[in-house]
Amino acid sequence: MAALAASGWASTFAIDFSVYWTICRSAIGDGGGLYGEASRLPWPMWYRYPPLFAWLLWPLSLLPFRAAAFLWALGKLVALAAVLRELGRRVGATAPMWGLAALAGLPWVLMELRYGNAQGAVFALTAAALLGAGKRPRLAAAGLGLAAALKVWPLFFVPYLAARRRWAVAAGATVWAAALTLAPAAWTGWAAHAAALGDWWAQESAIASRGGSIWFPSQSLLGVMTRHWTALSWKDQPDPNYPLVNWLALDPAWVRGLWLALAAAGCLALWRWARRLPPEAEPSAAAAALCALALLEPYAQRQTALVVLAWPALVAAAAAYRRGGRPRTLFAAAVALVWLQPLTPSAWWQRVYEVWGLDALAAVLLLAASAGGFTMTGVGGSPCPNRSSSTSTAEHER
Questions:
Q1: Which of 116, 120, 347, 384 could form a disulfide with 14 if both were Cys (CB 3.0 to 4.6 A apart)?
Q2: Under a CB-based contact definition with an 8 Å cutoff, are residues 243 and 351 in contact?
Q3: Residue 136: DSSP 8-state
Q4: Nearest-angstrom CA–CA distance, 254 and 222
Q5: Could you read off the pLDDT of 325-352 as tens digits, one per residue?
Q6: At what angle do helices 65-91 and 2-11 cross, to 10 degrees?
Q7: What is the Cα–Cα distance from 114 to 295, expressed in whole angstroms?
Q8: pTM score, two decimals?
Q9: Would you kindly state where each structural domain of the chain is located, as residue ranges?
Q10: Sign (positive or negative) of CA dihedral 158, 260, 105, 5
Q11: Which of 156, 167, 181 is nearest to 53 (CA)?
Q12: Can you tell me the distance from the alpha carbon of 208 to that of 194, in angstroms, rounded to the nearest whole number?
């Protein structure tokens, strides 16, 4: 009943889903354009996904909008509940842990649900692949490949899985992603599909060139650096009321170059750390990877992209509940930051918190809490062997 009520509530908004529903009706149903001005959608409500996503969602466009939005929200809720339930089983989550996790992750899930974005569905596919990589490598590879064909960011987990020695899943996901991306050519023709992919790439490249903050302040590292270190202007954006918080006026190209260096260093550190962890620490390793994704990707919108932090929220909650000490302090600070903005009655201060990047800081705190407090905890909370003990890396590899 709760899922039905939440889906009904979400269907009254469904801001981003309205774009998907409209583009499926106009571009696929009437033969219009998918991207940019050719789609006849006003900026910034442009369709931003590869052509495959529109074809998969096309059956929902045959329904009335409210009915389609309801089914879309319900499907995402069911998928999210399934993967989080399995994650909870892996970490031995109890009722208090679920309550703590809801404090940290529920606001991001509700925002994604309200917007009707596809990020929740892509995250569910990615999470299912990470959870099934050990026992069902072929199915996990197909799921991650589908997620990457719908949204580019799941490719972030291909080198991560390679670092975790899940070679078959990493290779299979790459093949599936390429095959599914090209699949619509089977019924549209190669020339038409190649043109659609070219239009998609050109549109997304133009949007990416705008910097780390587009129509909403990005909560990624690049977005925070751009707002604090460059003279960013909001005058030409849909909401020009965000304040300027920069205390430096550096060249945006220089800031982007520095971000690229930091992102590369962060990825290398993550892969090296993930490679050294035992299989039992997979929930914590994946939680760190999802936090790193939110922080290191070019653009992370708090309203939709940060739904991926639902996984780290549960792992960090388990660490805070079981270990106490530093994980509990870090987790409490993350919860305080997550709720500070929505509980602030002033719209001005809500915008200030967003441009400051409080959600990015919350992701950092969840990363520290989950990685530092739960790394050596296995299924059900049983301690794993200490990597600094006599159990060597070579023994683990054997």
A1: 116
A2: yes
A3: -
A4: 12
A5: 999 999 999 999 999 999 999 999 999 9
A6: 140
A7: 23
A8: 0.91
A9: 94-397
A10: negative
A11: 181
A12: 21
